[in-house]
Amino acid sequence: MLAWMAWTWQTAAFFALIALALIVLTLLAIYRPETPRTGILRFPTTRGDRFFVTLLGSAFIFVFWMRLGGGALWYPLAGSVAYGIAMFRFA
Amino acid sequence: MMDKPTNNRAWFFVLPVLVLVLFSSIVPVMTVVNYSLQDSMGVNNFFWNGDSWFRDLLNPDTEIGARFADALLRTIAFSFTALAVEVPLGIAIALCLPRRGWSVGISLVIMALPMLIPWNVVGTMWQIFARQDIGLFGAALTGIGLPYNVTQGSVSAWVTIVVIDVWHWTPLVILLSYAGLRAIPDAFYQAARIDGASRWAVFVNIELPKLQKVLVIAVLLRFMQTFMIYTEPVVVTGGGPGSATTFLSIDLVKIAIGQVDVGSAAAMSLVYYIIILTACWIFFTVMTQIDRRGDR
C-alpha cells in the first residue's frame, strides 16, 4: 500500500524521530505545563516554538553547508545539535 | 487581562482537519522527502542516492544549480517588486475611497471585481490585451513608440507580469486597508483636528499605526501568492522569452513533469518549502506579537 511513497529506512527513521519528539512535547505539555519565556529571540517562546525554530534552523544549516560545498554531513549535524541546545537553553 | 477559558476537549473537534491535512499535506511532503534522496528508474523503481540531488541543486556550477539560483533570485525580485507597488498603491486607493453614502458599495464592488477572475482567465485576458497587433495595451504602447513585445522582450514580459499581478491583487490590499481604516474611531480624527494636525501627520501618526495589523496580513498573503506565482506567466509568456519569467514554480514543474526528474524536483521543492515556511513563521510571529501588545 505504501510502496508508491518509496520509503527508505533513513527517511522513516527521520520522520519517526520527529513524531517521537512531538509525542514527548505533547506529554510534557500535559504533565509539565509551562509558561512561555522570553529569551534571545526577544519574544515569548514555548518548548514547541523552540523545537520548531530548531528544526527550521537545522534545515538551513544543512542547506548552507551544502551550498558552501562542505564535506560530510556529520559536521552540520553536530552544528544543528549545538544550535538546538542553544535554542532550547536561551530562546 | 482575562485568561481565555481552556478546554482540552476542543482538540477532538480539530481531529477531522488533522486527518484531512495528513492526506493533503503530510503524506505528500513525506513522499517528496523520500524522492529527494533517491534516484528513480521507471515506475516505482528507486535507488538510494544520498544527498547528491541537494548538492547539485545548491551548487551554482551545475546546470540545475544555476537554474535554481536564477529562478530563486527572479522569484524574490518579483515578490518584492509586486509588494513595493501593491502595498503603497492599495493604501493610497483605500484612503481615496468614499467613507459613507451610496458610492461606498459601488466603489468596493468595482475594486473587488478583478479578484473574482480565475488566474488562467486573467492570463488569457492579458495575453490578448498585451498583443501588439490586436491587444489594446500592446498596440497602444507600440503606437506611442515604446519598444514593447511580450514574446520577445524580457523587460516587456517582466513588466507585463508585474502589471497583471498589480491589477489582479491590489484590490486585496485595498479592501484590507479600507476595513482597517473604517475601524479607526472618529475620536482620533477629532483629536487630530483640534491639534491642527496636517493630513500627512494624520496618516503617519494615526492611520498607519492602526493599519499595522491588516498590512501584515496583506503583505503575508501577497508575499505567499507572488512567491508561488505560476499561472499568469505560464499563460502569458510561458516562462520566456528565454527564461526571463521562469519563476521557481514554473522551473519546478518543468523539471518534475517536463523532464520527469523526480529527485531534483523533490530536492528543489524542499528548499522552496523551507523558504516559504520561514517566511510564514516570521509573519505569524510578528502578527501574534502585535496581538499580544494590543491586549495589554
Describe the protein in words:
- The complex is a heterodimer of chains A (91) and B (296).
- Chain A has 91 residues and is mainly alpha-helical.
- Chain A has two domains: 1-33; 36-91.
- Helix content of chain A is 67%, strand content 4%.
- Chain A has three helices and two strands; from the N terminus they run αββαα.
- Chain A has helices at residues 9-31, 47-67, 74-90, and strands spanning 37-38, 44-45.
- Chain A has a two-stranded antiparallel ribbon.
- In chain A, helix 2 (47-67) packs antiparallel against helix 3.
- Chain B has helices spanning 10-36, 52-58, 63-96, 103-112, 119-129, 136-143, 154-182, 186-194, 199-227, 231-236, 248-258, 262-295, and strands at residues 38-40, 46-48.
- Chain B has a domain at 62-248: MetI-like (MetI-like fold, Orthogonal Bundle), CATH 1.10.3720.10.
- Chain B has a two-stranded antiparallel sheet with strand order 1-2.
- By secondary structure, chain B is mainly alpha-helical.
- The model of chain B has no long low-confidence stretch (mean pLDDT 87).
- The A-B interface holds A 3-8, 10-11, 14-15, 43-44, 52, 56, 59-60, 62-63, 66-67, 69, 73 and B 27, 30-31, 33-35, 37-38, 40, 44, 46, 48, 51, 54-55, 58-59, 271, 274, 277-278, 281, 285, 289, 292.
